Amino acid sequence: MTDTPGYFITGTDTGVGKTVVTLGLMQWLQDRGHRVAAMKPVASGCERGESGLRNADALLLQQQASMTLPYEQVNPYAFEPAIAPHIAAAEVGSRIDPDAIAAGAHALGGIADRVCVEGVGGWLVPLNERETVADMAARLGFEVVLVVGIRLGCLNHALLTARAIESSGMTLAGWVANRLSPAAEYVGENIEALEARLAAPLLGVIPPLAEVDPRRVAACLALQ
After folding, report:
1. How far apart are CA 28 and CA 23, in angstroms?
2. Could you give the domains of the chain?
3. CA distance 29 to 125
4. 53, 80 in Cβ contact below 8 A?
5. What is the distance between the alpha carbons of residues 46 and 14, in angstroms, rounded to a whole number?
6. pLDDT per residue over 183-195, tens digit each?
7. DSSP code, position 153
8. What are the start-end ranges of the E strands in the chain?
9. CB 3.0-4.6 Å disulfide test: which of 55, 114, 157, 175 passes with 146?
């Protein structure tokens, strides 16, 4: 993975820990001497303040970056309601353009060694009337890291998502198991089932975290 200019982080669903893993991946790269930039190109559920709409996850990525980046460069499409992005965009007369997102990411590649781009929702979440997150990832051309939230239903979601990524012609560099709850049952068995069925390697297992800790997450990753 270390020869690629960037990574696209997707998930089996919303709320599975994409931001946590993206921050950990950034830290892992930074610990190895890389200058790292990040994007969360599309974010719903933003809060309006004096500086405009801001998303909490995008602010964390902005803070973790190796250089100072304008918020709009990290999160060019920010929407207030926590709803599907194509609906949120239509409500304000906007249209999400994967080509513009790719151009922004590649511009960041001119000032960073690695660029980490976090998706929105899952792999096939619509971005506009025709295109999905998969189309955004294809424009970027980065290897894909899949975040699997270990909970009931994760086996089906992970296997379907991995198949969709491969069908899109993208390279699935690996997957990360994120233990969302300390009360989750059969965690080991679920992870073993996925290891046996996914061709891509397991890059790490993230324990339940009381707060976001990029260094702790980075310590759990074992990239190739």
Report:
1. 9
2. 6-220 (3.40.50.300)
3. 28
4. yes
5. 15
6. 889 999 999 999 9
7. T
8. 6-11, 36-39, 42-43, 47-49, 52-54, 77-78, 114-122, 143-149, 172-178, 202-206
9. 175
